[in-house]
Fold:
Amino acid sequence: MPGAATAAVVDSRQCKQHAEGPAAVLAIGTANPTNIVYQDGFADYYFGLTKSEHLTELKDKMKRICKHIDPSTSIVALFIIIISHRSGIEKRYIHLDEKLIREHPEIIDKHMPSLENRVDIVTTEIPKLAESAARKAIAEWGRPATDITHLIFSTYSGCSAPSADLKLASLLGLNPSVSRTILSLHGCSGGGRALQLAKELAENNRDARVLIACAELTLICFSNPDESKIVGHGLFGDGAGAIIVGADPLVDGERPLFEMVLASQTTIPGTEHALGMQTTCSGIDFHLSIQVPMLIKDNIRQCLLDTFRLVGNMDPNWNDLFWAVHPGGRAILDNIEGELQLQPTKLAASRHVLSEYGNMSGTTIAFVLDDLRRRQEKEGDEHEQPEWGVMLAFGPGITIEAMVLRNPLS
Structure:
């Protein structure tokens, strides 16, 4: 039967195109703008930058929010407390400064359209910030940039083409044949979505090496003081993260940091209203409901159980795992910790990143993984490391990106 023989040959060749083992994180790099804003002085910085010092009542409210809870605080302001200073945020890195406002006064004039100019700025600055993170990851990886076969770029800050992925490829000197994918407006789950896609690409394309780049600038959604928007201004910062993913066979010098065992994406039904972004003539408007932390709390256990049961029907003890959780805010971390009865040290990497950088949207998970691996390397042989772990990221939908990880050092 000639037909059957031909089919067998084709199938054999297809099998050789797959990697020999699961994908793994091989290197991580991070970067931030130089401008640092400390949370204690954020009210003065923000109201001064927007020339809104005359809004004394709103500014005083923000100052109180950053320091203590006032008995007369409204529900909205209480939520701001949860995500700002009392969330453990000490400082953030922000590209926007007085010089940029002087050059582009339309950014703080709600009566003037500013989207086009904002897009012009981020179109240049986003790839540059991503380049800084990517070069660190490539240096750690130890192979030439031209060995990158796939590039995934995740951002909510870009609205132009050629997009940030092509510009980053040019800045890094990647091969013209590199396979590029741009992920747009995934918000805080963008890094998790990129990791799952990178895993699939690495495992289904033998010798593939995937560069993930995530970069965000809050400039695209910066606005004047408004009680409904002050939440995001008290939480978000700017940054870029880069992760290199590959699968067996590894070459000399490559070292797996985390094995990527299995990934899942879960959308909580009926929560489209709770978290989202909308492009307007004045940039991107964020909508962040006070229900988000509770919605995640109510669904996280079942999501994790469903994910782990796909890995040999595992039903783990949550405290036997290591954790890389996107720190959307203290309320989210506290709710996950309480719901799963995690030991306080389990979310230490997430809390530290939140303290030092704030929420950098989808970029933040790269910082958490970087912090987590450094903790594990520092502890070394002194402490037994958990073999299994989990990565979590949350975005519009509400979408939960989950990934089961394995520690190759355990």
User: Anything to note?
Assistant: The longest strand covers residues 258-267. The radius of gyration is 22 Å.
